[in-house]
Structures are given as C-alpha cells and as structure tokens.
Design goal:
Keywords: Chloroplast, Metal-binding, Oxidoreductase, Plastid, Potassium, Pyruvate, Thiamine pyrophosphate, Transit peptide. Its cofactor is thiamine diphosphate. It is found in: Plastid, Chloroplast. This is pyruvate dehydrogenase (acetyl-transferring). The protein has 14 helices and 14 strands. By secondary structure, the protein is of the alpha/beta class. It has a seven-stranded mixed β-sheet with strand order 3-2-4-5-7-6-12, sandwiched between helices. A five-stranded mixed β-sheet has the order 9-11-10-13-14, with helices on both faces. The N terminus is likely disordered.
Amino acid sequence: MAVMLQGVVATAALSSSAAFDSKGAQLPTVKFLLERKGGFLVDRSDRRLAVFASNARARSASRLVTNAVAAKTDKSTASAASKIGGHEILLFEALREGLEEEMDRDPRVCVMGEDVGHYGGSYKATKGLAKKYGDLRVLDTPIAENSFTGMAVGAAMTGLRPIVEGMNMGFLLLAFNQISNNCGMLHYTSGGQFKIPIVIRGPGGVGRQLGAEHSQRLESYFQSIPGIQMVACSTPYNAKGLMKAAIRSENPVILFEHVLLYNLKEKIPDEEYVLSLEEAEMVRPGEHITILTYSRMRYHVMQAAKTLVNKGYDPEVIDIRSLKPFDLYTIGNSVKKTHRVLIVEECMRTGGIGASLTAAINENFHDYLDAPIACLSSQDVPTPYAGTLEEWTVVQPAQIVTAVEQLCQ
C-alpha cells in the first residue's frame, strides 16, 4: 500500500495546476438543500389511485416554492442532430472513450480499482488504458475497497482527479465511511480548503441471476449524504457525456451504470461533447401523464409506452439522469402540462429515489396534480437467484401499463 501511495503522489507532479483556490465554489447540492423547506417524512404505503376533487386544479401560485425550480441550463453542445454521421459504439466503450479523452486532456486524471489495469476492468471499461498511460495513472489495487477509496480521496485533496471503479457497486458498501464522511463532507468540514474532485463508478442493478449481494442498487444508500452528486447513465450517448462531466466537476460524483446496459449500441457524435450533471432528458414528449424513470427502467417504460400509445394514451417519458439533485425545472414543466405522475424505478420501494422524488413533487407542484403520484419500485426483499423469482421483484412493462390506465381514468 505504501508503494501505491508513493505512486499516486508522484503522479501529482505531472501538473503544476494541482494547487487550487481555497475559496472553492460551494457544492450546488448543498445550495439546493438550503433553499428547500424543512425536513419531511414520506409515507410510502399503498393507496388507491383516487382522482382528486375537481377543484384540485385551482392553482395557487403563492403557495409554490418559487426557488424550488432551478434555472434551466444550456443544452449540450452536442445536439441530437449531431448524432448523424457519428460512430456506433457500445455503452462500455463509450465510458472508456470518455475516460480516455479526459486522461488525454488532463494529466491529473487517474484511475484506480480492482483489475482496472492490464485486465481492463470487470466490464472492460478501462481496457487498454494501462498500456497507454502506465501503471501509475491506471492503478491496480488489492481487494480493499475502503483502502483504495480513502487513498483516492487523499489523492483528490492533493490536486489529482481520481476515478474509482467498484468491481460491483455492492462492494462499495465497504467504503461507505470514506464516501460519506470523507468524499461528501471534507469540502465543508475543511472550511473550503479542500475540493474532492473524485468520480466513483461501477456496475450495479439487478442483472440476470447474479444473486442478492451482486444485485444492489446503492443510489438509495448514498442519496442522503450531503455534498455528493449522483447521476445514472442509460445510453452510450449519455454515458460518455456524463462521464466527462463528472471528471471535470469539482464535486464528488457517483456515476451509476447498470450491469445489463453495457452492451447497448448507439451512434454518438464524433466531435467532443459534455452533458450537464443536473439535467434530465426528455425521452418522449406527451400530454396525458408524466413517467419519470432512469437507468434500465427507461427501456421497460418505453416498451410499455408502445402498448399505451396503441391504447390511445400519450405518455411523456423523462429519464431523470440526475438522481441528486433532481432537475425540477424539466420535471415541473412536465407536471404542469400532464397533471399526473408515475415514477418507475428499479430501486427498493422503501427509502428509494422514488420516495425522494415523490416528496419533491408533492412539496413543489402539488397544486398542479389531478391524481396522487404513483410509484412502481422493486420489492423490499433480497433479490432471488432463481430467474423467475428475480423477475417478480422488479417492475415489468405490464405493471406500468396497468398503473397508467388507473391514473388516467
């Protein structure tokens, strides 16, 4: 471990820009939370989808929290039209491409984790990088998540920009102390003397018969940590754009990747682009209901949307992408248009992203709702190994269709 530390510290000498202003910008997530109203509890018990009384549409602007909706950020420099004439790429290759571009651009960027070096990572997201950049910038570590995550935090404090790969996101529970007490809080507890520009990424979610311990969805665990930003990629295009944005951010960012999406193929632009870490994606415009989702459930929702369209419904589908903070600008505008909301997530029902999103919408856009918010989540049970039982624990397209029909009655 001492040799590893010496290697990482030696890498800091690669750039004279390792020093930084002690008056670092405050975390946007902290600012966002300070603008919110006091704490709240969420009751996630099942309830009938009874339609609100007709007078619920009486909107009272004075009752809305005006500062709950952030100013809209500019669109990515790479528009959807620029995808024409790009190159086809798999999602894991898009992650590697974004990582490689940033390592070329900034010599302070380094990678560490189990088998990230000459093996190329458990899902090949770092394949070939050790040969190109050497063993100091692509550092193979022992099986000790708490140790190398803590080492990455120290490297970030000295001016490097480390990317930590968890071989499986469930293993990062071993580094929960380093992620929560160090990554999220050091900028604040040091009085702004330190920035922690670190990216923590890796595969997670329910795969195919990976068992309970390898099917974790840690977004529910990490969402309550002050100072942490969280994003979830779902396509090769946004995987690369979010990876580059996370590396350039001065804040600690957790990038969630789904184990079943690595082999998705999509055409992405040849030119460089960087996405916003705090902006949702409008996947399908619609008029009847807003469906909010992210990661793998995006595809279950779009499968259900085909059935819904054939039945005469016009759902609006939004990939929220930013799990913390939420893009309440995009979400709020959609709620004001459709007046109905369905949240679809793979996260656990109790204390999941859906619970926080439900609370945020009720707090800020309650007067625009014509029906209670519905949330479809995974069952609160360990994920079974048996394939048929595994499917029962995760939201399926037929359940989404049924929920939309009930909400739109």
